[in-house]
Write a structure and sequence with these properties.
Radius of gyration of chain A: 20 Å
Oligomer: homodimer
Largest interface: A-B, 52 and 53 residues
Number of strands of chain A: 13
Helix content of chain A: 25-40%
Mean pLDDT of chain A: 93
Largest sheet of chain A: 5 strands, mixed
Chain lengths: ~325, ~325
């Protein structure tokens, strides 16, 4: 048996997994990101984490290390060009890791890793044209076109979260206004929740969020399920933003299936069912040819690890 | 010498060209579309037009016939699924033409044909990742990715004109609201011109359009060049819409170059120069990696004919 190692760098935590040839994660390790540190200190922690997750297995049995991270990655150079959520710029992640480990290292955008994972082992297994949208701290996009990972020319495209949804609209972390991400990320949902709470002092969201000592990405969804009208309006409008952003990309790529990942996908059918109902309003020639199904990604957090591990196979 | 035939169906006219192996159009024919007729009547006219343009050349010397048309085309089935500007739905263009001519027929979206033409013989000759945006009656998109025509899974994507630019914004001919096309087409520019004229009774656009007996896609550009402030504002805002729509797609595809075709591209540097200046505001990681150059398509109306003729070579 040979193995791959997948590293999933998030805004707050780093997850490392040892993946076998049956796409199973057979050992795991996790650590805090500490993105405020110099990146070389983070790299050292990743190297230690890989040693820990590898255990007794020799480096010879490891095919490659794949690293998924948020932001703008050039998979050809292995440079993390820009990651707004991490405050990292022009970090040579591939070189730094390869020089410390003597293993081939592949670097990919986290959403690209997720779509690879879901296509290798998850909800899109066997499909050749797949779009994945991650609704999390940021909004990412991953694309499998004709069975291959699509990353744009120079490996720097497929930034579906930074397609424009409302020109000159809400400011995005990337500096552009009106990106899909500025309407569909967790922070966007929290902003939308707070705005509605301000407008509706009678909403149950006030008591609910005081009890929880915070307003987060679940506040509106939870209160909507309890029947609160203001919360229902937040959720419906949020899902409408997501539907429009996805519909717009369906018109561009026409995938066989659209997968939803990221933290907000945990809402399951409360998100997925209305999304499928609404998306047709934004799909070109919907009456004639319909829209592809929108499905929940099935690997959850493991998609990032498995997909990163398999970056060598789809590049 | 062998030849290809390219047919370019537009909203008002059909252009047919005999294209030699040096990508030169050696004979031409054109006829009115008359899209209000049953499509078979249009097909008969195209067959007659092909016979005329072919002249003395035998059918054996013709490699294939390619047809470009506006709207939503399935290149695999040769079905013109939906063409808002022609009022055609589910027209079996490929079958109808093949059965009458005994030549292989390829059908493609007009913007796809344009990008093929420009990459075979025009401004993007030799490039492997090219995005073309046509600003005409509608707004079309064509993509060459890794040297091949990208038409989305099932050949029904790359509808860049129907990516959303302003969610729930201006109504589009396709039934969706807020499409790029609804802000960047000739009709959109005319709407923007009329709105500004209503707000600015002193604008020179009033006298100018009375003299010309119409308001068209050139009114604002012409009056802006004459120094009219209201017209300058129309042109600036219009170019801003185009820049945002292109920037959004650069984030998705990151092409090596963006070409502008269609009627409005005749404005040349008055359009292309400010477009290049503005687009960075909408490009992800612009400070780090810049934006690809935006160029005027160089084949003009011939791109549609040459590209249609070469559909066999890039499919």
């Amino acid at each position: 048996m040979r193995y791959r190692i997948g590293v999933d760098i998030g805004g707050t935590g780093i997850k490392i997994g040892l993946v076998d040839e049956n796409n199973q994660i057979v050992n795991r390790h996790s650590l805090p990101t500490g993105a405020e540190r110099p990146y070389l200190s983070v790299v050292e922690d990743i190297v230690k984490g890989i040693a820990a997750v590898k255990g007794d297995i020799s480096y010879k049995e490891i095919i490659s290390v794949g690293v998924g991270c948020p932001g703008f990655v050039n998979p050809e150079t292995g440079l993390l060009v820009h990651a707004g959520n991490l405050n990292w710029e022009n970090v040579p992640l591939k070189d730094a890791l390869e020089s410390r480990m003597g293993l081939p290292v592949y670097v990919g955008n986290d959403a690209n890793c997720a779509v690879v994972g879901e296509t290798v082992a998850g909800a899109a297994k066997g499909k050749r044209n797949v779009m994945l949208i991650t609704l999390g701290t940021g909004v990412g996009g991953g694309l499998i076109l004709n069975g291959k990972l699509f990353t744009g020319s120079m490996g720097m495209g497929a930034e579906l979260g930074h397609a424009i949804l409302v020109m000159d609209g809400e400011p995005c972390t990337c500096g552009i206004r009106g990106c899909f991400e500025a309407y569909a990320s967790v922070s966007a949902l929290i902003r939308q929740t707070k705005e509605m709470m301000e407008r509706c002092p009678d909403s149950a969201m006030h008591e609910f969020s005081q009890k929880n000592a915070r307003i987060d990405g679940r506040t509106a969804f939870d209160c909507a399920r309890m029947g609160d009208e203001a919360a229902k309006r937040v959720v419906e409008q949020y899902i409408r933003y997501v539907a429009a952003g996805i519909g717009s990309q369906i018109n561009v790529f026409r995938p066989e299936a659209v997968l939803i990942g990221g933290g907000i996908s945990a809402e399951g059918d409360h998100l997925i069912k209305p999304l499928n109902e609404m998306v047709g309003e934004y799909v070109f020639a919907f009456k004639q040819v319909g829209a592809p199904p929108i499905l929940k990604a099935s690997l959850g957090n493991d998609a990032g690890i498995i997909g990163a591990a398999y970056l060598d196979a789809v590049s």
